[in-house]
Specification:
CATH superfamily of the largest domain: Type I PLP-dependent aspartate aminotransferase-like (Major domain)
CATH architecture of the largest domain: 3-Layer(aba) Sandwich
Radius of gyration: 21 Å
Helix content: 25-40%
Bound molecules: pyridoxal-5'-phosphate
Largest sheet: 7 strands, mixed
Number of domains: 2
Strand order of the largest sheet: 4-10-9-8-7-5-6
Shape: globular
Strand content: 15-25%
Number of strands: 15
């Protein structure tokens, strides 16, 4: 970020905070020059008291809105009772949480972790061990097929198969055992399968990659191919899961059940890092005591909040609301047929708006911020419109109007 952008905060408190951050924070992000201090439902306030509509929801981590009253109550109640014990003992919170989780996802067992990347790492360990012990792939030979443009997190193993050079550069030696093929290309997956293939790992909609939706029928074809070839299908639904796309899981749109699903982000109710792999008995039973673990994974506080989050999702019919709200927002933008908009993609409230050539998407985000809307750019000159699923129709209409107005300035210029 340039110095001038950094200094744009006019009030002294904001300027001081941005200056301190620039000095002590490891410079891994180009954040908007906004210092958030409070948030409620779909709104965030900055230090100067200005209110913004949150159109990012922390990449779905805040899908239920900021400080959801039921989730806040569960968090504070549980924090005063029991939070962290380690898995050296059981808690009265974990098994009930996982029972609801496997029931709502149609899977057999769940393995709780904290961050999304840890859930993906867990799935990688599971399918490799399955490949070795069940499929009979020689040890150290298992291959996992992934997709160009993927995003699965930032650990060394996960960035090893990223197709974004900047995610990998300088972080080697990288982890082998991954083969990347074009997203949505079933023939390419078929060609890439060998007797050493243990799994295919896919985001049902690529989020970071630019909100890319695969061709209709692709997930179904992938499921059939994996069945024929005795290959595990792992869906990374860390961003797409838990109602974001208008269904419990994005895979539900094609009626397929993966062998394992990675969940995270929204699972923490907007309060905590809570992730999990939910999977079939055949896959999850490869794990034995000592194989894997996490000090904080599945702690009582995380389990209570995660459990409440699942109940809020169900009780507030947030899948249906994401479906309806996403259709409304998409229709408002499509009807406007704005010359600055080249493409609108997505499902439910996971929407990407790609701009026409020559429109600076970063500059649009800064103009939107000035107009009271927060969002960020993904790849391919695309911004995300992914508000909390709790957003109402009037707020969506307001947001669409503001976006179109802001874009007028860009086309006029
Ligand atoms: C965010 C994300 C991850 C990584 O989750 P972290 O909690 O940041 O580690 C993995 N996969 C997908 C699809 C994501 O969107």
């Amino acid at each position: 970020m340039s110095e001038t952008t950094m200094q744009r905060g006019t009030d002294p408190a904001t300027a001081a905070l941005l200056a301190l951050d620039a000095k002590v924070n490891a410079p891994i992000y180009t954040s908007l020059p906004l210092v958030a201090t409070r948030a409620q439902d779909v709104w965030i306030w900055d230090l100067a008291g200005k209110r913004y509509l949150d159109m990012m929801s922390a990449y779905s981590a805040v899908s239920f809105g900021h400080a959801h009253p039921r989730l806040l109550a569960a968090l504070t109640d549980q924090a005063g009772r029991l939070s962290v014990t380690s898995r050296a003992m059981h808690s009265d919170q974990l098994a009930p949480f996982l029972a609801t989780l496997v029931e709502m996802t149609g899977q057999a067992r769940a393995l709780p972790m904290n961050s999304g990347a840890e859930a993906v790492e867990t799935a990688i360990k599971a399918v490799r061990k399955w490949g070795h012990t069940v499929k009979g792939i020689p040890d150290d030979q298992a291959e996992i097929i992934v997709f160009d443009g993927n995003f699965h997190g930032r650990t060394t193993t996960i960035v090893s198969f990223s197709s974004h050079p900047e995610y990998r550069a300088g972080f080697g030696p990288l982890t082998p055992g991954f083969v990347s093929v074009p997203f949505g290309d079933i023939a390419a997956v078929r060609r890439a399968i060998t007797p050493r293939t243990c799994a295919v790992l896919i985001e049902p909609i690529q989020g970071e990659g630019g909100v890319i939706v695969p061709p209709a029928g692709f997930l179904k074809a992938l499921r059939a191919l994996c069945d024929t070839e005795n290959v595990m299908l792992v869906a990374d639904e860390i961003q797409t899961g838990l109602g974001r796309t208008g269904a419990m899981l994005a895979c539900d749109h094609e009626g397929i059940r993966p062998d394992a699903v990675c969940l995270g982000k929204a699972l923490g109710g907007g309060f905590l890092p809570v992730s999990a792999v939910v999977g079939s008995e055949a896959l999850m039973s490869v794990f034995h005591p000592g194989d894997h673990g996490s000090t904080f994974g599945g702690n009582a506080l995380a389990a209570r909040v995660g459990h409440e989050a699942l109940q809020v999702l169900r009780d507030e019919r947030l899948c249906d609301r994401a479906q309806t709200s996403g259709a409304l927002l998409t229709a408002l933008l499509r009807e406007a047929a704005h010359p600055a908009i080249a493409d609108i993609r997505g499902k439910g409230l996971m929407i990407g708006v790609q701009f026409a050539d020559g429109i600076d998407a970063e500059a649009v985000c800064h103009a939107l911020m000035a107009a009271g809307i927060i969002t960020k750019v993904t790849h391919h000159a695309t911004i995300r419109l992914s508000p909390p699923l709790t957003i109402d129709a009037d707020t969506l209409r307001w947001a669409a109007g503001v976006l179109l107005q802001v874009l007028d300035h860009f086309t006029a210029a």
